[in-house]
Amino acid sequence: MGHTGLGNFQRKTVRYFALSLICLSSFGKIYAQESHKASINQLISAANTYTDRAAIEKLYIQTDKPNYVVGDTLWFKGYLVNASYLEASTRSGIAYMEIANDSNRVVKRIMLPLYGGITISQFALDKEDMQPGDYVMRAYTQSMRNFGENYVFKKHFSINNPTDQNWLISYRAKVEKMAGNKDLLVQLTLNRMDKTAIGLRGVQLRLSDGRKILLKKNLETTIDGLLEARIDLPPAADTRQLTLSLQDLRETGNPPSFMFPLIANDPEAVDLQFMPEGGKLLAGIPAHVAFKALGSNGLGTALSGKIYDSKDREVARFQSTHLGMGVFDFVPQAGENYLAKIALPDSPLKTYHLPQVDTSGISLHVANPFQQDTCTITIQATPDVASKGGTYYLIGQAKGIVACYGAAFSFDKGNVNLKVNKAAFPSGIVRFTILSPDKLPLNERIVYIDHEDNLNIQLIPDKATYGQRDSVALSIHISDKSGKPVQGSFSLAVTDDAQVKTDRIIEGSIISHLLLTSDLKGNVEKPGYYVNPSRNINVWQHLDQLLLTQGWVYYDWQEVFQPEKVFLFPPQKDFAITGTVSNAFNRPVAGTGVSLFSQKPFLLADTLTDEAGIFTFQNIIPLDTPAYFIQARNKKGKHFNVGIEIKAFDPPIFVPYKGHSQPWYVNVDTGNLKRAQKHVQLKKEQEYVGGGIVLKEVEVTAKRIVKDSKNLNGVGGADIIIGEEELETRGRTSLGDLLEEKVKGFRVWTNKYGTRYYRIDDKLVHLVIDGMDTEFFRPASTSLYDYFKEYFDYYDAEEIKGIEVMSSSKYSMRYTSRFLPPLANPFGHAFIEITTRGGKGPFVKKSVGTYLYKPLPFTLPKKFYSPKYDVNSHADMTDIRSTLYWNPDIITDKEGNAHVGFYTADNPSRYTLILEGSDLQGTMGAQQQSIKVEK
After folding, report:
1. Fewer CB atoms inside 10 Å of the end CB: C or N, the chain?
2. CA distance 533 to 540
3. What's the pLDDT tens digit per position in 448-459?
4. Given a cut of 50, is residue 6 above it in pLDDT?
5. Which residues of 471-509 are buried (b: 16+ CB within 10 A; e: fewer)?
6. 278 and 444 Cβ atoms separated by less than 8 Å
7. How many CB atoms lie within 10 A of CB 216?
8. pLDDT digits over 223-242, tens only?
9. What's the CA gap between 804 and 593, in Å, rounded?
10. Domain stops at, among 631, 646, 661
11. E strand spans, 609-681
């Protein structure tokens, strides 16, 4: 057997080392020929070349806290590293960040400058844009988009507003079978924030499964605030997508309403999947099979069951050991179909199919023993594969590098057994892949290596306890595994436990993300649980089960052998403005002058278009409110009638998050309730400072006007008006996204024949641009939906002065009489009037001569406000910060030391300190501890 160990992994300068590998098996033909070693080295070299060209990157974001309240600022620091060595990446100079709500609509999107792999900034969670609810932060570079959504950094968080919350909702929901039909039993308890019952209250319940309304009924709570409803579920109802809405029927004005996912206990909704190690069940070869069970809430659920063959004979038993995951072993036989059966309460056994049994193939088994120095690899082949002969290859890769281990083998003498020294790999995910003689991947298995070499972090406060408005001096010392001091970049968050729940098991850290979850597919439940697995045998075993169930492939091996492959998204070093100048016949204008002008700060630049009419302005300073005027001039330096198109950032479209996040006030636990009550109490105490009451904000609104609008109703004659001032802040947001965001009820509706239309509530949408009815020009072969979608996708906020929506009969009647046939139903239509900057109607699709370009804003860092108090300062409850301190720019010196200081607030509590960071050369660390603040 030929083998090349590429071990003693060094992340900085060395890629290859000779490693003597001892094969402890007497089976398998041993290849000593140099040709096989050359083949292995050729494989490794090709993979490394691919890795260098791909410039795979990972991004981690630390925030100051896990969840927020309305009006908060979300502070964050980003660490961008190369996936190979986890060193600071210098391939990208720009990152993108967006926040999407629970409907997957992006409410904010910004650009972030990267300096040496670091970015620091903040998000203001304005109440106008960020209402209470669930959100997901997504961050990525252009280069990361080449490798799919799995590489995008994602963080889920909620925005709450306990001061406006009057109801607490507790519920239990379960699915019961009655005479073969499914019933959903829902029991709710409604209380106020002080836990008093909301009794004898009229409430409307509405239940849907995302496709249809299952229940709409008015009920009244008992004197104890109880409600109960039994719903007969249609056979096609999806109990995993239930949403419950509550509407208070008693109060006038603006009565409270609530909507949240209803997670019902439905044993039959369990999603159970089986994943054989190495990818296949092979006849006659022992199989090590992992499984994962997800409940109706999308999280792991405990279960047990048995495996039966086609003759209903039991061949194995299984039982989950952690978050719905577990493993079992059995020997599958040719011609058999295997079923798993699990017992359900009050139901017959439910069955699940195992993968089919193949009669031809190769199996791969990797044993990774706890606290052992080696992995044992067993490779077996079915007789037909073994008889064909040929040389196969086993490649071991870590962190996207295939420079760790390689071996060539055959099955001439039977099974192949190898022992691989773990020292050949760095800490983190290791992937073993078997390649065929034709270099095609056949099997994969991932394991975890833990050398316990994360950074050691010491946080040393100057006192055992602190008082209110007291000075905290914190010493920080960072060292490596051997105790040597480490220079690096770190960020520190300090939060009040009475207001912020911090759970690093659930949230994870820079360690769990960069070493584990960024290399796995799907949601990893409680990622922080798996940190430092070599210290606990149970964690070690549970981590191996996770890797068996959620591993994913870095890249297609076929791409490794295509050195000329061009990636769709090259690394973006800096911000540039690129566009095209074309004439009236849509042909490029070469050699024409193009000027770029900006007022704040002043910038004036000139360039020429190339033969394709393309121009580029580079090395532009990042701005937080960018606006650029771009003008094309002829050879005489005069403005002339040409079209300018800018190549703007085209954001990716992400899959909606499918989790079941509950609002904080639903089934709230004791800890979260106490935090909410404390927040309300502190706000009240703050408002009553000095014996007076802080008056609520009074909002004064004026009628909005769209300049140059052709609105048939005159100035302000619309149900919804989105003016120029608001549109100027939205950059390249498309017209379609603007309508989805700002127009309640705007949606795509599909009739029973499958034809799609745009509607606002139950009214058909019509589009008018600069007073012209767009439908007049619609080709007969184009559907109304496709025709409108072209406009909704093409126009963006930069090209629009105003949007007016006429959906009520008060404002739509003039449009109905002007644009619709005489016999059309006047009450079933809504009109959207768009006023463009060009003012030429739906024909002109390019800015002529001059272009006002407003790219995504760069959000530049602001300094976190941390008050300073003198020794005589009195705690009067005006300082109730939940984030006490945020410092994203802590740099340790040559001795591994840094010092920071801050002041405590007015609320006596326990503070949680979380420090995370990296030496930016491949090693990272995270530490959490507490300090106590007393009166």
Report:
1. C
2. 5
3. 999 999 999 999
4. no
5. bbebebbbbbeeeeebbbbbbbbbbbbbbbbbebeebbb
6. yes
7. 11
8. 999 999 998 888 878 888 88
9. 38
10. 646
11. 614-617, 628-633, 643-646
Rounded Cα distance, 642 and 247, in Å: 56
Phi, psi dihedral angles at 288 (to 5 degrees): -110, 110
pLDDT value of position 670: 83
DSSP label at residue 224 = T
Q: Which residues contact 698 (CB under 8 A, 6 or more apart)?
A: none
Is the residue at 785 inside a domain?
A: yes
Domain enclosing residue 740, as ranges: 720-838
Token pair in block for residue 804: 């007016």
Tell me how many degrees the CA angle 768-770-773 measures, rounded to the nearest 5: 30
Distance CA 424, CA 5 (A): 7
| Element spanning 792, H or E | helix 784-794
Residues with Cβ within 8 Å of 872's Cβ and at least 6 positions away in sequence, in order, are none
Sheet containing 133-140, strands listed edge to edge, beginning at the edge strand earlier in sequence: 68-69, 153-160, 133-140, 94-101, 106-113
Is the Cα torsion angle 440, 446, 452, 455 positive or negative in sign? positive
Q: What is the pLDDT of residues 115-145, one digit of tens each?
A: 999 999 998 898 777 888 889 999 999 999 9
**The pair of three-digit structure tokens given for residue 126, joined into one six-digit string:** 């304005």
For residue 815, tell me if it sits in a domain. Answer: yes
Residue 80 has which token pair? 């961008």
pLDDT at 660: 65
Please report the pLDDT score of residue 850 as a whole number. Answer: 72
- Look at residue 242 and tell me if it is in a domain: yes
* Range 243-247, long-range pairs (CB < 8 A, 24+ positions): 243/207, 243/208, 243/209, 243/210, 244/171, 244/186, 244/205, 244/206, 244/207, 245/204, 245/205, 245/206, 245/207, 245/208, 246/169, 246/188, 246/203, 246/204, 246/205, 247/203, 247/204, 247/206
User: Domain for residue 140, yes or no?
Assistant: no
Phi, psi of 724 (to 5 degrees): -65, -40
